Automatic annotation (TrEMBL):
InterPro entries: Glyco_trans_31 (IPR002659)
Coiled coil: none
Species annotation: Metarhizium acridum (strain CQMa 102)
EC class of the enzyme, as a word: transferase
Presence of the UniProt keyword Hydrolase in the record: no
GO molecular function, one term: hexosyltransferase activity
A GO term from the CC aspect: Golgi membrane
Source superkingdom: Eukaryota
Main localization (coarse): Golgi
Localization of this protein: Golgi apparatus membrane
The protein's name in its UniProt record: Hexosyltransferase
Keywords for this protein: Glycosyltransferase, Golgi apparatus, Membrane, Signal-anchor, Transferase, Transmembrane, Transmembrane helix
EC number in record: 2.4.1.-
Family per record: Belongs to the glycosyltransferase 31 family.
Length: 318
């Protein structure tokens, strides 16, 4: 699997336990799964639920949280990550997790409570906000809270949307740390400057929902289902994280007709092709409450209306 041989190996010096989560594959695949787990030791098998698209897209993540609790596998932070996401683990660790850890009690522990780190997403179908399901991280008390809420309300919907719905049903609130568009985005190969590289063209829109790799702040690149695209993005990273973005040394490739059209429409203010994910959230859902911003009545965004990461100094962690 490409994940094991790329970012999992490249970033193995970062303190995380990467696990692949599968449901019950059925009798034809059981022995193969057991063999793979004996070989790599990185599978969690939820054998009480079936392996199918419906389960994967609805209850699987919540069932994983329940499994972690029942098996005594406590973590300070738990990240849900799709298999088509490349994660810059060193940058995520240094910028988002280390500042939220403390060893004041003698061991390293989360210094924050009820916190979600992800990309705030709005679903107009359910008029609901939640962390986009391709990647989000929650504190252990959020794991416990979501499991208890699911036991009460038994929500069956998209696995990421379920988080927002459960928070509403339980009248709960949590802190939300929001990714910028340049940090987490869907990869758009038509935005790349050359056929063989994933680096973005000069006229890219780095805060848009979709674009090529740009700058030094990249945390997660989504929609890399094609192995060719995966390896193009992988070439932008080394053990320290993302490489410096090279300057343009030759003319860029000719842009597709669709990209040129979007650029022109955007230039005259008639296109929303390059809006950020935050800009898709209705303004009426964001309000100021005493000393902090709140989205959808459930997400505490802190002092920033967008909820962007504001930690600068690192915590004292060994």
């Amino acid at each position: 699997m490409l994940i094991r041989s790329t970012w999992m190996r490249l970033f193995r010096h970062i303190p995380f336990d990467a696990r692949f989560v599968v449901s019950n594959p059925g009798p034809r695949w059981n022995e193969i799964v057991r063999f793979e787990n004996r070989t790599f030791g990185d599978l969690i098998v939820l054998d009480h639920i079936p392996e199918d698209d419906m389960t994967a897209n609805t209850i699987k993540t919540l069932e994983l949280y329940k499994w972690l609790i029942n098996h005594g596998s406590k973590y300070e932070f738990v990240t849900k990550l799709d298999t088509d996401v490349w994660i810059n683990a060193p940058a995520f660790w240094e910028r988002y997790l280390v500042p939220r850890l403390s060893n004041k009690s003698g061991h390293t522990a989360a210094a924050v409570n009820r916190t979600v780190i992800g990309q705030l997403y709005f679903s107009d179908s359910g008029y609901n906000t939640f962390a986009h399901g391709s990647m989000y991280t929650i504190t252990w008390d959020m794991v416990q809270l979501l499991v208890s809420l699911q036991e009460r309300f038994n929500v069956l919907t998209g696995e990421d949307a379920a988080v927002g719905i459960l928070m509403h049903k339980g009248s709960q609130t949590a802190n939300f740390v929001n990714f910028r568009g340049e940090e987490k985005f869907d990869y758009d190969d038509s935005d790349a400057r050359e056929h063989d590289f994933a680096w973005a063209r000069a006229g890219t829109h780095p805060n848009a929902i979709s674009h090529a790799v740009y700058g030094s702040n990249v945390i997660a690149v989504h929609k890399l289902k094609d192995n060719r695209l995966w390896m193009k993005v992988a070439k932008c990273f080394n053990q320290r994280g993302i490489k410096p973005m090279p300057p343009l040394q030759r003319p860029e490739r000719r842009l597709s007709l669709g990209t040129r059209w979007n650029d022109w429409m955007h230039s005259i203010g008639l296109s929303r092709s390059y809006v950020s994910m935050m800009e898709t959230i209705p303004k009426e859902l964001i309000a100021y409450d005493t000393d902090h911003w709140v989205c959808d009545g459930i997400w505490n965004l802190g002092g920033s209306r967008q909820g962007f990461n504001t930690y600068v100094a690192h915590a004292n962690v060994v």
